Structures are given as C-alpha cells and as structure tokens.
Known about the structure:
- The structure is a homodimer.
- Chain A is of the alpha/beta class.
- Chain A contains twelve helices and twelve strands.
- Chain A folds into two domains: 1-107 and 262-364, Isopropylmalate Dehydrogenase (3-Layer(aba) Sandwich); 120-259, 3-Layer(aba) Sandwich (Isopropylmalate Dehydrogenase), CATH 3.40.718.10.
- In chain A, strand 8, helix 7 and strand 9 form a beta-alpha-beta unit.
- The interface between A and B is large, with 60 and 60 residues.
- The structure holds 3-isopropylmalic acid (2 copies).
Amino acid sequence: xxxxxxxxxxxxxxxxxxxxxxxxxxxxxxxxxxxxxxxxxxxxxxxxxxxxxxxxxxxxxxxxxxxxxxxxxxxxxxxxxxxxxxxxxxxxxxxxxxxxxxxxxxxxxxxxxxxxxxxxxxxxxxxxxxxxxxxxxxxxxxxxxxxxxxxxxxxxxxxxxxxxxxxxxxxxxxxxxxxxxxxxxxxxxxxxxxxxxxxxxxxxxxxxxxxxxxxxxxxxxxxxxxxxxxxxxxxxxxxxxxxxxxxxxxxxxxxxxxxxxxxxxxxxxxxxxxxxxxxxxxxxxxxxxxxxxxxxxxxxxxxxxxxxxxxxxxxxxxxxxxxxxxxxxxxxxxxxxxxxxxxxxxxxxxxxxxxxxxxxxxxx
Amino acid sequence: xxxxxxxxxxxxxxxxxxxxxxxxxxxxxxxxxxxxxxxxxxxxxxxxxxxxxxxxxxxxxxxxxxxxxxxxxxxxxxxxxxxxxxxxxxxxxxxxxxxxxxxxxxxxxxxxxxxxxxxxxxxxxxxxxxxxxxxxxxxxxxxxxxxxxxxxxxxxxxxxxxxxxxxxxxxxxxxxxxxxxxxxxxxxxxxxxxxxxxxxxxxxxxxxxxxxxxxxxxxxxxxxxxxxxxxxxxxxxxxxxxxxxxxxxxxxxxxxxxxxxxxxxxxxxxxxxxxxxxxxxxxxxxxxxxxxxxxxxxxxxxxxxxxxxxxxxxxxxxxxxxxxxxxxxxxxxxxxxxxxxxxxxxxxxxxxxxxxxxxxxxxx
Lengths: 364, 364
Ligand SMILES: CC(C)[C@H](C(=O)O)[C@@H](O)C(=O)O
Ligand SMILES: CC(C)[C@H](C(=O)O)[C@@H](O)C(=O)O
C-alpha cells in the first residue's frame, strides 16, 4: 500500500511559519504512529507570482489534482496590492477551489474554553460554542459570468453575476445534512429569498433535499441579514449553517471572530470523491497571511495544525488521530501556553510559533 | 407658507402600533411648538396586498413621490410567506426605495448607555458606540438585471446580477463623506475588491471622490468579510462605513444587533433634492414587523420615534427639534422606563407601547 500523499502550499506572510509546525506534527505521526505521508511542497499566491509571474503555476495545479489532500497556509500581502486582478495572490487560491471543484467549505466556529475571555462577546454567550458553517465554495457571485468592468455610455459599470444551479445547491445541502447527522442534527439555511431569485431557488432546493433524503434532520431557513444578527446575539442556537459563497464569506468570518479564537480556527474544503474514495480536499486556517507579524515568530500555528487534524478526519478517516491532536492542542492551552495573539493583561510571557508547535508535539 | 407634508405608511405587524406613538409626537409638535405637518396615511406591504392585491398601489406610489417625507412602520409576516415573489410585502418597500431613488440609506448603530447591558458584547466594547453605516439602497444585486429562475439543460438556475455604475458609487460616496465631516471625519469603505470586479470599481471610485472632493476626510478600505469581523471585534474603530446594498444589509443588521439597542434604532433613506430643496426621503425603524408580538402592546416604539427625529433633522432642517426628541427618549430610558424587549432580570415591570409613547411626550 502506498502512503497517502500531501501537497503543502505554505504561501505568503505567516504561511510558511505556521506550516513549519504542521510539518513537525506530520513527522511525529511517522515516527511515533507509523503513519507516513508522501509530502511534496510548492508555491501559491504572492510567492508563486514572484517565482513564476502567476499566483498558481499549471504544474502546481496538476499536482494538487493528484494528491490526496492539499494543505495551504495563507496568501496575500501589501507587496501584491497593486497587481492586476488576474494575478493577485487570491486568484491562486480561487483557482484551486474552482478546478478541484471543492464545493463544500467546512468552517467550524468553536470557542476554546481556555480562550473564552478573548471574545468581544460575553462569556456566557460564547463559552462552549461549537457550530459548523458549510459554505458553498465553487459557484455563486465568486465565479458567475458575465463579470468585469465595462464601458456604458460615458461611464463604466462593474458587473458580477450570482448564479446557482439546482445541482450545485443539492450537493452542498447534502454535505450540510450529512454533517448535521454526526453533530446536533440541526441545519439552518441562509439566503435572501425575500430579495433574490437565486435565494428562492436555494431555499426550495435545500427544502427538497431535506424532505426527500434527510427528513430526520431539523431544518430551518433564515434570511442572511437576520442570520448575521442572530450569530451576534445568541450563536449557540445554531448547529450547522449552510449558505452560499458570498454570505458564507461574511458570516463565517463574523462567527470566527465571535469565538475569540480566530488564530485557532481551521477549515476544510471538500469536493467529490476521487477514484480511491477520498474526497478532493484542501485544508487551510481561517486566518490570513498577517504580513504585519510575518517572520517574527509571533504567529499562532494552531489553526494550521487543526486544519491538519481536519485532514486526518475528513481525508484519511483517522478520526481517532484527529481527536488525539485536538486534545493535545487543548492540553497545551490548558497548561497556559499562549502565542502573542492570545495574551490578555495578566503578564504571561508568550511562546513563539515554534515553541507552540514543540509543545503540541510534546503533548502528543 | 404651506405645512411640510408627511405620508405615513404604517404597514404590517407592529407597524401600526409603533406608528400610533409617532403620531402622538407629531401632535405634540403641532400643539406645543406650532410645527404642523400635513399628514396623510396609506397602506404598504401585506396590508396593501390584502386591500388591493399589490404590496404598493400606484396611487400610494404617486403620493410618496409628492410628499416631503414618508414614514414607514414595517412590512411582512408569515401570512404572506407563500405569496408569489412579485407581490410579497417586501416588494412594496423595494419599489418605494427604487422609484423614489433613495440611494443613501443611513443606519446609525448606536449604543444607548442605559441599555449597554443588553448587548451580547462586553460592555467596554459597546458602551458609547456611535457609528453610521451608509448603505447604497437603489442598485447592486437588489435590482440588477438579468435576474430570475431559468431552465438550463434539464435543471433550473437562479440568477441575480450585481451592477454598479460609477455615478451610482459617486453619489453614495459623497453622502458618506458629507456625513463624516459632521461627525468623526472618518470613512471606511467596504467591498470585496479581491474577488469582485464591481468591488474594484467601487474602491476606485470612492478613492477618487475622496481625493478630488474630500481630501480632508480620513478614508480607509476594508474587505467586507474583514469588516464583519472588525465590527464584531472592536466596532468603535469606525465612524462612517460606506458599502453596497447587499453588504450593507448584513453589516448594518449585525452592527445594530451588537449595540443591544435593536428595538431603538432608526434609519433614513435619502435621495436627490426635490424642487423645494428637501431630499426625497423615507424614514423607518431598523427592526421588522415582529408578527409574533403584534397587537399585544409589547412593541417598542422608540426606533420609529427616532426615525421621526431623523426626519426632523434630514428633511426639515430642524436639528434642534430632533435633538430635543432624542434627549426626551434618553430621559425616559434613564428614568427606568422599559418596554418588554428591554427587560433584564431585575424584575422591572414593562410599560406598554402606548405608555412608552406617552412618557416620551411627557418628557418633551
Ligand atoms: C482570500 C479570499 C479570496 C477568500 C474569499 O473571499 O473566499 C477569503 O476571504 C476566505 O474566506 O477564504
Ligand atoms: C425587508 C427587506 C427587503 C429589507 C432589505 O433586504 O433591504 C430589510 O432587510 C432591510 O434591511 O431594510
């Protein structure tokens, strides 16, 4: 049997630093658990642009299609702000999502007990929070045509198109219902069916998938603006939220921030099963490339490490290994270890990115 | 000189109840201050549909075009959930916005001292908060064509179009900069220029309006997802936020909820100046029609009353009268008067909608 394969795309900013810690975890699995991965590495985002003049080289794209899972760090930075839209770092990430057809973006918004105080929300509102946002990732206004800036009369007009087919909605709805069955068995679907026809179709299809395939799961619908409100008011009312690409972008970021655990939150982007039964998959932290702290040993590697835990669970069916890794992270936090982003006012000395990685390996 | 004219469209759910209290305030201005309005009333939303089979009768639309300001309560309710998209209560409101060309929607997100405890956010995060969200209201994905649900192959596809012209962006940017000059002199513009071409144009035009007309105002740009995060983390970093119709819908609702003062928040929707120099204008509370508590005397009339205060300020140039009314509201809150939505756990007896209105008249 061949080893499962991983492509590491560390990317820009703090990406390489946090990914270095993930490599320690991967190494530990080989040394101590006999779980070996074939790891290759490549460039994405600004660093790929610097090397090749494109944020994702075709060869890298081809490799991503072949491996069992991609681990991505982060892309972007002020250095690339003035690049043309078509070669911006983000385009590399969007191309991966689109060409790998990673339609289901799983974004857990979880509040770590040890960190509840970091939330801007009151402790009782967030303590113990554990919701899963399933964001459609390969369609909607991110990819719809026509798009562009056009001349019209004597001015320009900026155009983007929101576009959802029934089958695109069906498949991401299924992902949400499947997840719900393994969690709290509740799905809330969010759109603006009161304003957008694409939202009407969304609501109708999610309801149909529910009624015909998942009648046992509790389903509700909410307008996305009300959803944003309710996330801020009492997020614990939710279990799984399913929503489109653009609403998912805003709502999952708001939810992530609410937990107070932003530097801690992983994500998984999953597509259809490959020949070997594993889904196409890319794992990345929710946080960005944080260019302001890059290279200073201040970054928190936990989100990236927990993204690897999601890979163990969703790509390699190693739920026990994932649990172990997640427990190790909790352990280290409970022991009071904190990277600089997690410091309150109590005078604790921060650990470096690398020390945090070492501590987690230790706890394993 | 003729009296300024007002069209009251109380609408559905709690709309009529909260509007009844506004009428008391209008009456007080006539009796005690010699400020008389010519008030007419009509139907909008579900109640208009019940009477005429349309959520906004053409005659009502014509009246709205003629008056100096429209006061709207709220629209919608479960009774109308199964109506066709084209006659849903919301369509009445959207038609008013579009045909009156009310392009600048002003949504203050303000935390009332007496109510800071109601926020799900920590008190220091929200106490004293006072930001103004300027949401573009007549274009973008709410109104862009093509739109609809179409057959494609053997399935259906839901389509909406985001569309912004340079002049549409310019005029709402000007509204934001003008407001900023009278407040904290800071504007933050939000879009997704990293993903959407309409966002690229948005950013470019806002920057140009700034550089050529308002170089004295501090301008920053933020991606809308980061904006959602920052609103949840530390909203006091903002003064004026300007953003498009859809982002504004979500962001302003999130911001409103964060203040803990949802039942308290007014809004103004302003268009171009009419022949008499007054802008086309519609004022409405941010909260909805709350069908679950309609008719029980539980609704909080303050958001609707403060919407009238905004009318005094923005339509009738009566800033002093607006200040007086706002102070009366604060006074009543400071005196401990609370409608049912504002009750904590300290056993205060709630006042009814009508008692709250009376108390505010009293305080005036
Ligand atoms: C970097 C950017 C293109 C991306 C998005 O908008 O999807 C990011 O915000 C995210 O949520 O993963
Ligand atoms: C009622 C609805 C059409 C409306 C909107 O989406 O604009 C509401 O949510 C608002 O924000 O005023």
